From TrEMBL:
GO terms for molecular function: transaminase activity. The keyword Endoplasmic reticulum does not apply. Belongs to the DegT/DnrJ/EryC1 family. This is LegC family aminotransferase. Keywords: Aminotransferase, Pyridoxal phosphate, Transferase. The lineage of its organism: Bacteria, Bacillati, Bacillota, Bacilli, Bacillales. The keyword Transmembrane does not apply. It comes from Sporosarcina gallistercoris.
Amino acid sequence: MNDEWFQFAKEVKKMYGKDFVPLHEPTFDNLEICNVTDCIQTGWVSSVGKYVDQFERDLAEYTGVKRAVAVVNGTAALQIALKIAGVQADDEVFMPALTFIATANAATYLGAIPHFVDVSTETLGLDPFKLDKHIQSIGVMKDNQLVNKSTGRIIRAVVPMHTFGHPVDLDPLLDVCQKYNLILVEDAAESLGSYYKGKHTGGFGRTAALSFNGNKIITTGGGGAILTNDEALADYAKHITTTAKVPHSWEFNHDEIGYNYRMPNINAALGCAQLQKLDGFIASKRTLTQKYVNMLMNNKDAKLFVENPNTKSNYWLQTLQLKTGVNRDTVVQKLNNAGVMARPIWIPLNTLDIFQMCPSGDLSVTYKLQKEIINIPSSPIKFSE
Ligand SMILES: *Cc1c(COP(=O)(O)O)cnc(C)c1O
């Protein structure tokens, strides 16, 4: 079998210098070892320690968002980001159907109901123009709140997700939020280091969530963070993610049902080291994108998905877009058989049994992209030139 995918796989393996190339691996060196060793030697591995505070300060500085609150994972970060932004039980929350399950789970944990809407072929993320049209057909304003005419529920918020690091079109989305009094909460789990019109993602809404899972652009083993420009909300996020304990030298007084979601110090120690390398990872991923673009120049089946004007993507996961009619699973199978890990985009969440009862809009672009989008190996490489 000597077709163009076999040829492509050969080049990818050569570039990575491996017989099997995984989708995404974390990159560590001595800095991570030093920080983690420091935690172990001093005994500060758990819920108290200097690295959590430092990681939160470093994240705020890097993203340009006023405050960051580190937590156990990205799903917990999104749950708390939604809660402190004002999402309540029985509210509906707009989100793309084409996202990782965590986006919908986080809303569901609060008793809210995901309301799935379509994505755009330009960004792979939520389509603000189509959202506006959908609202015009299903929504009505009552007491300055958007209400779903068919369910009678308040639609409280909208959660865009910056797919594989590519920012959604935020300006028109902000207009939609303004027009219908919707709270914007960004799922920025995949977009640390991605910018829209020069401003870091995660700083556009009331709150946002980051993830530092093992496969993300930087990792703390497992971890996440809530971002917000609102000091009071940040303090509240810190309070409820640390069991809502009222500060006191010895008394265990808690003023609401809180969560034990705090990021352990040993994980934050990893994060501090990783964050110092983020710009290097992004530079490497951007070079990788150019290499893939060149490798695919004459490929008849696919092209690489590249960033939009006005955005800077972190290129967390490199993304292939197949031409219409090319069989996705055949390509995925060929690449995996040839030792190059490839994976299709998610199954639209509205089609999962667990979310079938949720409201949704027209999802024609979601279904089209589901058949065309594949991720290929994306770990940062040390390019010599
Ligand atoms: C990774 C991710 C999250 C959070 O995942 P965790 O594994 O809980 O850290 C949330 N949303 C999206 C879109 C993600 O990719």
